[in-house]
Write a structure and sequence with these properties.
Blueprint (H helix, E strand, L loop, with lengths): L6 E3 L4 E3 L43 H11 L4
Antiparallel strand pairs: 1-2
Length: 74
Amino acid sequence: MLTTVRGHYNGTQIILDEDINLMRGQELMVTVLDIVKNAEKKNPDLSKYMGRGEKMFTGDAQEYVRELRADDRI
């Protein structure tokens, strides 16, 4: 079985947020996400990239992609 299940850490143990049947001794892989749930989500200002023609694709496109990737987590 290969599946992904959401969960959280309560300070002492990992708690699964979904009901799943596991066998005693079943091997698991745990991924810790670098997410702060209450962080203010900053969306890039897309209007500053509109109507720029070729110039957008020389220098500004890299900044645009960096801004999108900086906030690509849930």
